[in-house]
Amino acid sequence: MFDKLADFFKNPENRRKRIFFISCFSTVFVLFLIVGIGYAVWNSIVVPPPPPPMEFRPVLPSVSASEGSNQDEDADSTDDSEPAYIWPAPIRMTDDDRRDMFWTFLIVGLNEGTNANTVMVASYCGVTQEAHLVSIPRDVPVHATRRGRKLSSSYLVGAGGGRGRAGGIAQVQRDVMNVIGFIPDYYILIDYDAFFTIIDAVGGIEIDVPMRMRYDDRWQNLHIDIHPGVQRMDSETALHFVRFRRSNRGYPSITDFQRIEHQQMVIDAVISELLRPASLLRIPEFVNIFNESVYTDLTMGNMMWFALELNNIRGTDALSTHTLLPYRSSGTPNYYEFLNAASVVEIVNNTVNPFYIDFEVRDLNIIRQ
């Protein structure tokens, strides 16, 4: 066999065949080399991200009292002048108590006035391949004296004094921890521009609208007119859908909790679009768009890994939504929504708790009426 191969390369009449053979062999070798290098690079970048270590975290950047003077008048002096270094969970919990392959995310959606209209905590378990989405009412009071300070204003308070997005998200983290007992591993901040970009990137979403939505506000230049039924929404219509609450006379209005359900419907619809076979081929493109549009501490490699994990919940009921429902509302003029700590603990432990140890009522700092 080797003699025949040697004759093949020595015989001048086989010159063209030799060139063709060598070209094919070189091409295949280079392709295997590229694939091998690509696979090695992929495995080094797109890997399950480790959760942030359990250590004291500065959750509010330090600013001077004068810099913080344009914040809400109800913000306490600690918020204005001192950085807060806190343990991101009850002090009894350590890295050893973390659940394996379990991540949590804080999702904050801003309106045009930089108030947080949407505050959610999400979790994903890589072992059971289940995801949970827990909505926190924006009208939950988070300041001890309750002079207008709700969770919806946390971002604006933290971002004041030139602290910007880092300060804003840090204040939301701090206030969310008081409600659920811990700071989620990662944060995702979405404003209107990011919302438009994401919806447009997936080519719109399909929503079953439960009722006629009609509202006009000339001061905000806001005009909503959405008919009931299943329909495909572009980004502008989807934004109107999640913003709608009050209506024109003669049309039904909805509660803040119905609006939370609509926000959850939109997130579920976006995930459904991402799970389409054609969309899965565009995951790197979507990840790049997401990275450029939102403010987050997730790396590109993190986002790519989580995006690929979405495929595991295709066609299942692995994604579930929940809402921390209040037991009482204060009504006019402030409409504070008061949560029951025992109910919150039960939902947190069954959905987004990243520890093997259960949270207890004493771990929360929920403001009661």
What's the layout of helices and strands?
Blueprint: H1 2-10, H2 15-45, E1 57-58, H3 77-81, E2 85-86, E3 102-110, E4 116-125, E5 130-135, H4 154-159, H5 164-180, E6 186-190, H6 192-201, E7 205-209, E8 213-217, E9 222-226, E10 229-233, H7 235-243, H8 256-274, H9 277-280, H10 283-293, E11 295-296, H11 300-309, E12 319-323, E13 328-329, E14 337-338, H12 341-351
Parallel strand pairs: 3-6, 5-12
Antiparallel strand pairs: 1-2, 3-4, 4-5, 6-11, 7-10, 8-9, 13-14
Helix pairs in contact: 6-7, 6-10, 7-8, 10-11
Protein architecture, described:
The chain has 369 residues and is an alpha+beta fold. It folds into two domains: 2-34, no CATH class; 57-363, LCP protein (Aminopeptidase), CATH 3.40.630.190. It has twelve helices and 14 strands. Strands 11-6-3-4-5-12 form a six-stranded mixed beta sheet, sandwiched between helices. The longest helix is centred in the first third of the chain and has 31 residues, at 15-45. It is globular and about 55 Å long. The N and C termini lie far apart (91 Å).
